[in-house]
Predict the structure of TetR/AcrR family transcriptional regulator C-terminal domain-containing protein.
Amino acid sequence: MHGAEAPFQRIVARIRSAIAAGELRPGDRVPSTRELMREHGVAMATATKALTALRREGLVEPRPGVGTVVARPPRARPEAVPDSPAPLERVVATAIRLADADGLAVLSMRRLAAALGLPTMTVYRHVAGKEELLLLMTDAAFGEAPLPGVADGDWRSRLETSARLQWGVYRRHPWAAEVMSFTRPPMAANAMAHTEWNLAALDAAGVPLPVAMHATMMLANHVRGTAINLEWEAGAEQDTGLDNVQWFTAQEERFARITATGRFPTFLRLAMLGPDAVDFELDTLFEFGLTRLLDGLTRLVRDER
């Protein structure tokens, strides 16, 4: 006789069945470790083990900024035809799909070629290397959310529009925040359009262009700086099996030892307000910073007039 089915195996069987029945479709989010713990009354290690088993079966996959989702069935690999290279748009779209799923760290020209079903050297007919590939990916990502064709509204509403569109790009493609730079910005026209949009808005409000450029960079840096955490956070949850709440819970003992020294009385007072006193969600942090920055720029615009 076989032993009783382990709790993690029951969870795996239930999710596997839901996928097979079409109740969970490719791209649908599956329960997180925290949700599995609550729904099935299991420990975190058991929930993590279940998701790990599903990933090994190829049924689910991590998606940065979203969580664990049902994996798409592998496509049949086309026959490699060296003399018939894939169009550039397909190369870029495939690279974006790979980076969205697994991050930039695992994106290579060799892996991209394998995903396209082509020899690596065929891909090099379209892009000179990874640097050019990242430029094209960034341009395509920002091109998904174009700025309005008519610049209506005052300077504040226009800057807010740009910031929210940028945040949306990073939400969909967390890797893009890593590619962007202020010291060596990528010459991607669709990204540069945001700089032009903001400069024009502040210029029309009477702000000198050098000051307008600093303001534009400050705002873009807030959006990008917050978005940098998206991919890191998704990777950390995948590696540890802990979401943010679970991670903080696991740190309680260490936090207690540190604050017992008396060096952090204000920090301790904040912690004693409870876990819901501060919202650490990245969307909340983005909104808070955006509002404060625009409030500050309101004074700047008034002083420059």
Residues 155-241+275-304 form a domain with the Tetracycline Repressor; domain 2 fold (CATH 1.10.357.10). The chain has three domains: 7-70, 88-127, 155-241+275-304. The beta strands are 60-63, 67-70. The longest helix spans residues 209-240.
